[in-house]
C-alpha cells in the first residue's frame, strides 16, 4: 500500500456545517465518484454525510450509529426517501448485505482496529469502495510535523468559517498511523493511505470486482 501526505486549505465557500471532520466529506465523491447503488455511512451521527451522499445513490443510503439519540436526530432531518438509519453496534448490527460505497468518518478509532477493518471490508460489495477518514495517535516525526502545521491552518479556518458542533462524544485515538498502515496492509490489499491536515488521515480501498459468471 502507498502512504502520501496531502496539504489542503479549506474550500473558499462558507459551509455552516464545517469542522475538522466534515471538511473531508468532499473527499468521498472525489475518490469514489457517483453514481452509487447502495451507500452505508458508519458512525453517521445526525446524518449530515448521508444527506450529502443521497443525491448520488440510485437505491438506499443507510446510516448506522451506536447512539439512538443521534439516529433519532438523523431520522428527523432526513430529506430523501432513500435515507434509512440503524441504531446499533456496526460490528454486530444487521445491515442488510453489502454496499457499493462504505464511508467511515472519525469512527474507526472508536472500534477495535483489526476487527473494525474486517467488518468494513465485509460490508463493501465486490467492486465497491471503502473510504475511511480517521484519527491516529501521532507517533512519528512526520505525524508530529504535520500536526504542528495543522495548528495555524486550523486557527485560520476557525476564524474564517466557525466550527460546527455535531454534538457527538469525542474519544482520543490510541492507535498510531503505523498501526493503521499495518492492519490495512494485511486486510485491505492495495489500500491507499494519506496523511492530511487537521490531524486526519484517509484510507481508500476498492474491493476486487466479482468475476463474471
Give a short overview.
The protein is α/β, with parallel strands linked by helices and 213 residues long. The chain contains six helices and eight strands.
Strand and helix layout:
Blueprint: E1 2-6, H1 27-31, E2 39-42, H2 48-53, E3 61-65, H3 68-77, E4 83-87, E5 99-105, H4 113-123, E6 124-134, H5 141-161, H6 177-187, E7 192-196, E8 200-206
Parallel strand pairs: 1-7, 2-3, 2-5, 3-4, 5-6
Antiparallel strand pairs: 6-8, 7-8
Short descriptors:
213 residues, disordered N terminus, 6 helices, Rossmann fold, 8-stranded mixed β-sheet, alpha/beta, globular
Principal-axes shape call: globular
Give a count of the beta strands, DSSP E runs of length 2 or more.
8
Profile the largest sheet: 8 strands, mixed
Order of helices and strands: EHEHEHEEHEHHEE
CATH class: Alpha Beta
N→C terminal distance: 30 Å
How many domains, in number, for the residues? Answer: 1
Describe the structure.
This protein has 213 residues and is of the alpha/beta class. It has a single domain, classed as Vaccinia Virus protein VP39 (Rossmann fold, 3-Layer(aba) Sandwich). It is built from six helices and eight strands, in the order E-H-E-H-E-H-E-E-H-E-H-H-E-E. The longest helix is centred in the last third of the chain and has 21 residues.
